[in-house]
Amino acid sequence: MITEITLVTKNYKTQLNNFVSFYATKFKQEINGFLIWKLRSSDSYGFVNKLAKKLAYWYTTEIKRVLLYELSEQKHWHLNKEDYEQIIEKTLNEKYKKNNDLLYWEENRIKEQLEEYLLGSHYLDIEGFLRFRLKWFIEVLDNLLDELINEYLMKKEYEDFLSVLQYFVKDQPCRVGKVHLIYRKEQFELKNELWESFSREYLESIVNEEETGARDEELFMSAVIALTPKEIIIHTEENSITTKKEYDTELDFFEAVETIFSGRVNYCTNCKLCERYIRK
């Protein structure tokens, strides 16, 4: 007995054409703007099972990417195409490639729903199934997108802030020649070119009063900006330079210093200061 399953779409024609290209027995129609593909097989249950599995993978790969673009344009129209692409690639790479459990859960759940549906109906409206059966899938993507767009906008705002600081520092006269910034075990210490320590009281006195009582990374960043040195030597453990994620803070302190003081920052992991403070 021949089993025939009809797949219909209006918005995902390119994607559906790609999908059915792997099937030998198929028939194509286009009626009133709808693309219709009829797939046939003599293996009833096996055909449905395999088709459901392939469609589930298709929904969670090709259609997912299109949905992410659609959701971005609907909710975040103020972003440009380049912004969309960065955010969507980050969604796919960070949230899925690094989280196989999420991808497997989505694909398996969609497969089960498709298999149940196709055993009772041999007509699948691609958009209709998304809209009525896969609302949860769209919600998952929507939530992930919101999360990453917020992160992206915060990062962009932070980068713009660093650019302003970089411009400000570039036009400021240097108050000191060189400073040594020592970072070890989530603690900072700032020394002058004679390796004499700046006291916390002194650092607080040269920055805005609002910085008093600030976190170490905030105080030291403000102090270094206020001092505007010609050169900054950062003394730290080698793995801290490699990862730059040694401490728990919203801001990547090392990268921020590098950006603001472009061309003035060097790292050291093997000198007398390192021997005394880093590896003691």
TrEMBL record:
Q: What is this protein called?
A: Sporulation protein YtxC
Q: Which organism is it from?
A: Natranaerobius trueperi
